[in-house]
Design brief:
This protein is mainly alpha-helical and 148 residues long. The chain has two domains: 73 residues; 57 residues, LysM domain (Membrane-bound Lytic Murein Transglycosylase D, Chain A, Roll), CATH 3.10.350.10. Helix content is 63%, strand content 7%. The chain is built from four helices and two strands. A two-stranded antiparallel sheet has the order 1-2. The N and C termini lie far apart (96 Å). The mean pLDDT is 81.
Length: 148
């Protein structure tokens, strides 16, 4: 950047000085714009690098949790299999949940009344408000007397 000496200022009009300073400032601001652009790009790179690292770390944690849940799921399936094999099959119906079914509709279907809904839920280790999933299997006693 060009510096103006005092002897160059003497006798010059303000417009001439502004013109001279403007050209010097133009160069100075041009340099600052390049510096700011470089710093902005560097900041963005650091931010994106941190974000990518954070996402990779979170993905690793989630994969670990999914693996743990899959192991628990397999264990629960095994426990259910063992429990259902111990029950006499001739006393229960294993009902597969269809769309729109709840314990009330299942009770009405098998026993003609919704009065056994809470006991059906309890038999299946659930509450009457539990949302049943399509394809889920629940135990339904063939006789309503088994629910009393």
């Amino acid at each position: 950047m060009k510096k103006i000496d005092n002897h160059e200022i003497i006798g010059k009009a303000v417009k001439e000085l502004d013109k001279c300073n403007f050209q010097d400032n133009k160069y100075f601001f041009s340099q600052q714009k390049h510096l700011l652009l470089g710093l902005s790009i560097l900041s963005l790179f650091i931010f994106l690098t941190g974000t990518v690292w954070s996402l990779k770390h979170e993905t690793t944690i989630l994969k670990s949790k999914v693996s743990q849940l899959n192991e628990e799921n397999a264990s629960f399936k095994e426990q259910i299999s063992i429990q259902t094999n111990q029950l006499p099959d001739n006393e229960f119906i294993y009902h597969e949940i269809q769309e729109g079914e709840c314990f009330e509709t299942i009770s009405k279907r098998y026993y003609g009344t919704e009065n056994y809904a809470s006991k059906l839920a309890l038999l299946n280790n659930m509450t009457v408000d539990t949302i049943l999933n399509i394809g889920q299997i629940i135990k339904v006693p063939k006789e309503s007397d088994m629910l009393k």
